[in-house]
Design the sequence.
């Protein structure tokens, strides 16, 4: 069978900010047969999105196709004129972006945007396009298919918007559809529904797909073949079953190993329970000032309680909007709670940072998810890490330098890094600097707010190893906030599940997959994709439960 | 690109602009020593005289030497405008960052008061102040500062609010850092690029407003005149193609364009600091 799309020895070059030319795609070749879904998987910077975009004859600004051919249905899109390329896009090949929220115009109705492709290419009269769109909405399992198109983008949920962007891509009956991490920004319970919808329309329409993702488990559910990429080169290519169950290339094995949950038991539980390092009681907090009933006008947390024992880790899991980050902000004193107490090693802390002593502040440190925004881009690493040392411990000069060196050693960064600016570091390195800054204070408790979520699988696994090691050496406790259950499983002793600002269940992390009792915890835990090609098809979820808790 | 030390490079255009600005700065300082004639003295019987060996830039509408008047005018234009723009930007940027970091009531009150100030037409405000307390150099500088501080405040506050929402500022707050540290170390380095661009624009506005005030008789008092006033008093020479009206204009243009060119061509290390 002749392939629908084939890439032959593709080389794409880019010019860096410093004016240097680099080759980001180095001789990649791959084929997509009609009706087949090929997944491109790799870490950030592996070139997976660049390759997918080249199928539309498009390169991002600053990039250039240097050699090679991209054959789409027999024509080489690289050599086409812009007009001819525009004619192909939307009809032969279509694109589903990562962030549907950014892909829709907020001030136009959804229907008008979905049928825009048909209008631009004059494929069918508007009435027919609308009827077709409604059919697509139905096929994508959107609620109220007949009327959802009359709404504006802000009136539907994130998962619905992502499916609507798929409808937008499908309206021109493309032969090939490119999915660029379409479920990465979604909650796990939402992700399942979107994946199912994509899978059914791809199967039903017999179209080919290219699915770009960094998440092997997601890809395993939807792809027929997987292409593993690293640094712009193909590492391994094979059927999904083969890649997942019998990876041949060492890099693929590393990827899969990083995905496997590791045992989280850091400390054996002792019989005598020591005094908790952190205890939170009846915490109620929110935004918008305090209303007449003594509660915040926009409540985010309601009567949350938790205990964290020294040297142990508590995982807080929940989907977006569950209040997990607000909990961390309250504990750090950034958001004074409306009610409730926070005590550290038996002493009650003041609600806001202004009321806390320097020593209280030192003992709790917070590490944020996005190392990009958590490090001042204009301060060299040495100064970022050194500031808490000076601030809390009053060190200057040579003593400060020595301490900064020791901290960089601790997080396994070369000492020469201290002269660099954050923009010159990779994502994993930034997160290590972020950690070093928290360690500089010599805290007892570190609040980790999604510290590994923005990192690639392999890098995230290394950061988790580092966290575990630091805990052994320094006797720290972590409050680990995450939506990623395998991360929590890997590092936490206990788990607390949050849903809409309330604690629904507490349990030991080791028992999480089998011992969850609350229906929401069960739904959440069962929604995490497994590294198994048949997982999605075999998954049975209680429809009533889904309707109650998942905001699809 | 030309190396200027500290690992920074500046483009040839930027360097040329810097030279122009330095030239006018030197002229402003040394003017009394280098003027060929007394700028207030009528030295030629001809008015709107042409460029001759005696009067290199011709003479003005009373027959005074233009070169001397422009050299002396540099003192007023460069001195008053630079002093006023520096004060206005310093005050505006500092207040803007403080308002953004503290937020809440202080931000509200400060912003509304400054908005109210913004609503007073600038020339009218200058007119009233000068009529009330008379025209002198300090009064002119402070008046211009008062007129241009609100804009600078608004600009800096808008930038600072964005930076203030970043996680690294949150981390610094959680650490217990004070206001001075937050604005000096965390906010300022990240807004300095756009603030410098604003400084250049504001400088040009101040030069123009100063010229306007001088035209109304409220600026620099005769017999001295800043460049704007030189243009205005000699505007009648335009039909004769008199150099007296062209050269002050050239002086204004060279200074304002040079200031903006320099800021646009500042070394990347300074200019692009706000880029994440």
Sequence:
């Amino acid at each position: 069978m002749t392939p629908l799309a084939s890439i032959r020895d593709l080389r794409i070059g880019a010019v860096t900010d410093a004016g240097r030319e680099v080759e980001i795609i180095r001789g990649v070749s791959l084929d997509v047969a009609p009706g087949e879904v090929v997944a491109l998987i790799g870490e950030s910077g592996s070139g997976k999105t660049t390759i997918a975009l080249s199928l539309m004859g498009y390169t991002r600004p600053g990039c250039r196709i240097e050699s090679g051919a991209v054959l789409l249905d027999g024509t080489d899109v690289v050599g086409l004129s812009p007009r001819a390329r525009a004619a192909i896009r939307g009809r032969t090949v279509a694109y589903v972006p990562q962030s549907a929220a950014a892909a829709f115009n907020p001030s136009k109705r959804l229907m008008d945007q979905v049928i825009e492709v048909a209008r631009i290419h004059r494929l069918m009269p508007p009435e027919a396009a609308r009827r077709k769109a409604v059919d697509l909405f139905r096929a994508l399992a959107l609620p109220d298919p007949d009327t959802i198109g009359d709404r504006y983008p802000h009136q539907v949920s994130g998962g619905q918007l992502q499916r609507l962007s798929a409808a937008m891509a499908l309206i021109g009956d493309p032969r090939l559809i490119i999915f660029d991490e379409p479920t990465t920004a979604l909650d796990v319970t939402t992700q399942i529904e979107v994946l199912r919808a994509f899978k059914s329309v791809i199967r039903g329409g017999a179209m080919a797909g290219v699915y770009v993702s960094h998440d092997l488990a997601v890809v395993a559910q939807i792809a027929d073949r997987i292409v593993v990429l690293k640094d712009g080169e193909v590492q391994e290519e094979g059927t999904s079953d083969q890649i997942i169950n019998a990876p041949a290339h060492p890099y693929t094995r590393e990827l899969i190993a990083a995905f496997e949950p590791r045992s989280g038991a850091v400390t054996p539980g002792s019989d005598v329970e020591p005094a908790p390092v952190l205890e939170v009681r009846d915490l109620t907090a929110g935004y918008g000032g305090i209303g007449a009933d003594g509660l915040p006008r926009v409540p985010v947390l309601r009567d949350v309680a938790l205990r964290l024992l020294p040297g142990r880790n508590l995982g807080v899991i929940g989907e977006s909007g569950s209040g997990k980050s607000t909990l961390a902000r309250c504990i750090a004193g950034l958001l004074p709670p409306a009610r409730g107490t926070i005590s550290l090693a038996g002493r009650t802390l003041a609600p806001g940072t202004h009321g806390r002593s320097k020593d209280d502040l030192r003992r709790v440190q917070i590490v944020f998810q996005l190392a990009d925004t958590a490090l001042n881009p204009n301060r060299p690493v040495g100064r970022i890490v050194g500031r808490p040392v000076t601030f809390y411990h009053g060190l200057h000069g040579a003593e400060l330098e020595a301490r900064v060196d020791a901290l960089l050693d601790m997080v396994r960064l070369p000492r020469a890094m201290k002269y660099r600016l954050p923009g010159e570091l990779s994502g994993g390195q930034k997160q290590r600097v972020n950690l070093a800054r928290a360690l500089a204070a010599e805290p007892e408790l570190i609040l980790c707010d999604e510290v590994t979520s923005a990192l690639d699988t392999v890098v995230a696994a290394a950061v988790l190893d580092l966290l575990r090691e630091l805990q052994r050496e320094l006797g720290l406790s972590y409050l680990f906030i995450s939506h990623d259950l395998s991360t929590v499983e890997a590092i936490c002793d206990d788990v607390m599940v949050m849903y809409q600002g309330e604690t629904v269940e507490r349990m030991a992390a080791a028992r999480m997959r089998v011992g969850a009792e609350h229906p929401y915890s069960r739904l959440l835990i069962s929604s995490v994709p497994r590294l198994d090609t048949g997982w999605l098809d075999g998954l049975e979820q209680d429809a009533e439960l889904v309707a109650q808790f998942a905001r699809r | 690109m030309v190396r200027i030390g500290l690992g920074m490079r500046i483009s040839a255009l930027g360097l040329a602009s810097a030279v122009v600005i330095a030239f006018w700065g030197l002229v402003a300082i040394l003017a009394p020593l280098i003027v060929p004639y007394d700028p207030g003295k009528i030295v030629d019987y001809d008015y709107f005289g042409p460029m001759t060996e005696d009067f290199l830039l011709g003479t003005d509408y009373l027959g005074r030497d233009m070169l001397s008047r422009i050299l002396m005018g540099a003192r007023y234009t460069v001195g008053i405008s630079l002093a006023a723009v520096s004060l206005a930007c310093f005050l505006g940027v500092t207040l803007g960052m403080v308002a953004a970091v503290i937020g809440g009531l202080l931000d509200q009150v400060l912003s509304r008061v400054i908005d109210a100030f913004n609503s007073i037409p600038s020339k009218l405000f200058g007119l009233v102040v000068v009529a009330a307390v008379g025209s002198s150099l300090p009064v002119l500088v402070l008046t211009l500062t008062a007129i241009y501080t609100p804009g600078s405040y608004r600009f800096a506050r808008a930038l600072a609010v964005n930076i203030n929402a970043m996680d690294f500022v949150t981390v610094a707050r959680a650490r217990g850092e004070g206001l001075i540290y937050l604005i000096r170390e965390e906010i300022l380095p990240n807004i300095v690029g756009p603030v410098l661009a604003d400084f250049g624009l504001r400088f040009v506005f101040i030069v123009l407003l100063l010229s306007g005030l001088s035209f109304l008789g409220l600026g620099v008092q005769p017999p001295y005149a800043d460049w704007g006033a030189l243009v205005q008093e000699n505007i009648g020479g335009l039909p004769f193609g008199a150099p007296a009206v062209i050269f002050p204009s050239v002086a204004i243009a060279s200074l304002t364009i040079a200031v903006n060119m320099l800021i646009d061509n500042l070394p990347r290390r300074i200019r692009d600091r706000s880029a994440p």
